Amino acid sequence: MEIFKIIEPKTSKVPIIISVPHAGTFIPEDIKSKMNSELSDKLDDTDWFIDKLYGFATDLGITIITANYSRWVVDLNRNPENQPLYNDGRVITDVVTVTDFNGNQIYKDNYIPDSQEVARRVELFHKPYHEKLDELLQQTKAEFGKVLLFDAHSIRKSVPGIRSEDFPDLILGDNDETSASPELIEATIDSLQNKGYEFSHNHPFKGGYITRSFGKPEENIHALQLEMCKTNYMDTSEMSYDETNAERIQLVLKETLVNLIEQMKFI
């Protein structure tokens, strides 16, 4: 199984890369055999179908990189040295997590991957994705003089382990307005607000490790994270893709990306 898949643009390339780090579902058998099958057969923390939802973006000239491995093998949006992203009491899953977002144990028989196993997974699965993403960003910057990384995510409407209230429908993260230029942030907010979806900026998510590590606007490498509720494009069970819901949110996403393509001309 390849670590990632690159989906090339179908038209003239633009300086935007969409990253989909959490839609992968593959788990090597040596790892899956140690997991609680009730959880590993459902993979509830997966960003289901996000790669499908954003599939239209290649028609706009955008390149997409999507991970093939499950985040329960290794989490590509966590610091490989396990430095926490938040310190507000929420459940914080590690780069190699042993629980889901609600604290349920992923592994059976109290198995915990040791430091050697964590390092192995980081080397095999985490590092190649980040190296390829960096390569794509650097190549695009060399071609256009600038580049925007758009990190695409989704989450259940309700995850009590992280937050007692339901999540807003759309959550834009830019590490407290440090990972992208003010103009790009403003253009994104303008595109997402007042479209029939509850919108929030940097709360309760302000961007994970990918956004924070790659976003360097002073070097003309900008990064934004968009977290969205699965109910935006899935059915009420949050298990199946819903074409009607998906088409509605895709109109907002397309408008957002078109506006960002235009804004990038002036960065």
Automatic annotation (TrEMBL):
Entry protein name: N-formylglutamate deformylase
Superkingdom of the organism of origin: Bacteria
Organism: Epilithonimonas lactis
One Pfam short name: FGase
InterPro entries: N-FG_amidohydro (IPR007709)
